[in-house]
Amino acid sequence: MRGGLLMKITVLLASHRRNKNTAQAVEFFLEKLKEGNEIEYVNLLDKKVEICLACDYCRKHYGHCVIKDEMESIIETFHKSDLIVLATPLYFNSVTSRFKIFIDRTQILYNAKYKLNDPIFKEKKKVVIIADGGAPHYPGQFDGIMTELKHFLGNINGEVMGYYKYNHTDETLIKDNETARKELTEAGEKIAKDLKNN
Ligand SMILES: Cc1cc2nc3c(=O)[nH]c(=O)nc-3n(C[C@H](O)[C@H](O)[C@H](O)COP(=O)(O)O)c2cc1C
């Protein structure tokens, strides 16, 4: 805990639908974390995040992007967070396209760290990943998520504290999935304790 202050938890919602499975999974996870902590939702549906222009501006301008939209302020929010929750549905075996657009724009962080040798995220950032796929289990269903997130996690110096994934959500909604509820609320409770003890 930061001097008795609240923990700041930022939730990145990458679903293209509001209040559906991904959001429901997040609410289960937050059940025990909401009390005593500050929660900020970054719903990509509400954020103006343009596609990366691959212009290399951020290679010459440390920590800045040529595009003036909401991306830099989201990165600032991430930077101030004690825990970041990344929540995405599976779209074609990977994260959603909105999430991919967001990830590409963290090229600012990539260039700062690997090209300008001065990482913006200097300290480890705790991260929890929640993913849901509509189809029943099939081999490799969720493999693309971690492949996609690997470099992004490097950009934010992310340390994954938990990765929770649920399939068949088109048949059984997360909100009706008692196993998911139990696992996610327990995970949130455990992380609440871990954060307080750090
Ligand atoms: C464009 C698109 C691609 C999808 N691709 C997959 C997929 O590859 N594997 C899978 O299991 N489900 C896939 N789904 C189903 C979603 O993962 C599922 O409906 C999920 O619950 C959506 O999250 P939401 O309920 O928060 O909107 C896809 C859905 C859409 C719209």
Explain what you see.
With 198 residues, this protein is an alpha/beta fold. The chain has one domain (11-164): Rossmann fold. It is built from seven helices and five strands. It has helices at 21-30, 57-60, 71-79, 97-105, 107-115, 143-155, 178-197, and strands at 7-13, 37-43, 83-89, 125-132, 158-166. It has a five-stranded parallel β-sheet with strand order 2-1-3-4-5, with helices on both faces. Helix 6 links the parallel strand 4 and strand 5 (158-166). Helix 1 packs across helix 7 and helix 5 (107-115) crosses helix 6. The structure holds flavin mononucleotide. Flavin mononucleotide (FMN) is lined by residues 15, 17, 20-22, 89-93, 132-135, 141, 167, 169-170. Flavin mononucleotide binds next to helix 1.
Topology:
Layout: E1 7-13, H1 21-30, E2 37-43, H2 57-60, H3 71-79, E3 83-89, H4 97-105, H5 107-115, E4 125-132, H6 143-155, E5 158-166, H7 178-197
Parallel strand pairs: 1-2, 1-3, 3-4, 4-5
Helix pairs in contact: 1-7, 5-6
Report a brief summary of the structure:
The chain is an alpha/beta fold and 198 residues long. The protein contains seven helices and five strands; from the N terminus they run βαβααβααβαβα.
Integer count of domains: 1
| Cα-atom radius of gyration | 17 Å
Q: Note the quaternary state here.
A: single chain
Low-confidence stretches: none
The secondary-structure class comes to alpha/beta
- Mean pLDDT across the residues is 96
Secondary structure: number of strands:
5
Spatial arrangement of strands, main beta sheet: 2-1-3-4-5
Q: What compounds sit in this structure?
A: flavin mononucleotide
How many helices? The count is: 7
Secondary-structure element order, N to C? EHEHHEHHEHEH
CATH architecture: 3-Layer(aba) Sandwich
Give the overall form: globular
**Portion in beta strands:** 15-25%
